[in-house]
């Protein structure tokens, strides 16, 4: 009968703890998307707080597993190594995401700050819940106006290329909305078309930072429009 190594079970238990944070993030995202709990619980509490602390606990567990595995590398070495890799990737992912959220500009980008384009039919829906006053190219250098009157079909194409679902379009404007994949965060976009100038605005509906998502989408729309013939 094979003799069981006393430390092997503890290494496996510690290794299992390293996957708790990623699993919690997946559960939090899935529950939010299915409506099991509001985004304040799924994202703000379970992901940004609980899963973050679990990732730190997982890193400590991985180090403990590595120390225990030194007594029997042949039996527990791969398990401990996997635990270290998972814990390192998880903590690294959280650190990267937190830095990204902190560094991104305000989630309300407009190419015209003198006369910021409105969201039309979404005015009441967005009222008081958005990320604050709009910022322009000084905060998001790629969000540039198009210094000509573009065709409505080009505006529709630019919105769709940036991942937005078209809400409406006409001679003077095109509107779209985009729902994020993981937690369903909404961004709205409007392209305002005038003789000699076309402006863009993209903004989140909530007050949270999203790591410059509005800037990236406004930049993508601007680049598509400026490249259009």
Top keywords for this entry?
7 helices, elongated, 5 strands, 229 residues, alpha+beta, 14% strand
Write structural notes for this entry:
With 229 residues, the protein is an alpha+beta fold. The protein has seven helices and five strands. It has a five-stranded antiparallel sheet with strand order 1-5-4-3-2, covered by helices on one side. The longest helix is centred in the N-terminal third of the chain and has 31 residues, at 39-69. The radius of gyration is 24 Å and the shape is elongated. The mean pLDDT is 89.
Gyration radius, rounded: 24 Å
Helix content: 40-55%
As a percent range, the share of strand residues is 5-15%
Largest sheet: 5 strands, antiparallel
> How widely separated are the two ends?
78 Å
Unreliable residue stretches? none
Mean pLDDT: 89
* H and E string: HHHHEHHEEEEH
Instruction: Give the count of helical stretches.
Output: 7
Structural class: alpha+beta
Strand order in the largest sheet = 1-5-4-3-2
Q: State the total count of DSSP E strands.
A: 5
Shape: elongated
Please summarize what this structure is:
This protein has 229 residues and is an alpha+beta fold. It has seven helices and five strands, in the order H-H-H-H-E-H-H-E-E-E-E-H.
């Amino acid at each position: 009968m094979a003799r069981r190594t006393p430390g092997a079970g503890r290494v496996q238990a510690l290794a299992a703890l390293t996957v708790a944070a990623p699993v919690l993030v997946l559960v939090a995202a899935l529950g939010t998307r299915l409506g099991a709990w509001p985004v304040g619980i799924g994202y703000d509490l379970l992901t940004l707080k609980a899963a973050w602390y679990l990732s730190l606990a997982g890193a400590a567990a991985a180090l403990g597993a590595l120390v225990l595995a030194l007594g029997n590398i042949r039996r527990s070495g791969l398990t401990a190594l996997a635990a270290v890799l998972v814990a390192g990737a998880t903590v690294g992912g959280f650190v990267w995401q937190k830095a990204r959220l902190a560094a991104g500009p305000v989630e309300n980008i407009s190419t015209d700050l003198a006369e910021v384009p409105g969201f039309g039919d979404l005015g009441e829906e967005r009222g008081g819940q958005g990320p604050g006053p709009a910022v322009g190219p000084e905060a998001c250098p790629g969000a540039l106006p198009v210094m000509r009157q573009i065709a409505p079909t080009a505006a529709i194409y630019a919105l769709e290329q940036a991942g937005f679902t078209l809400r409406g379009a006409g001679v003077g404007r095109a509107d779209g909305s985009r729902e994020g994949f993981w937690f369903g965060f909404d961004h709205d976009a409007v392209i305002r078309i005038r003789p000699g100038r076309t402006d863009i605005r993209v903004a989140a509906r909530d007050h949270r930072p999203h790591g410059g998502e509005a800037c990236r989408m406004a930049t993508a729309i601007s680049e598509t429009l400026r490249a259009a013939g």
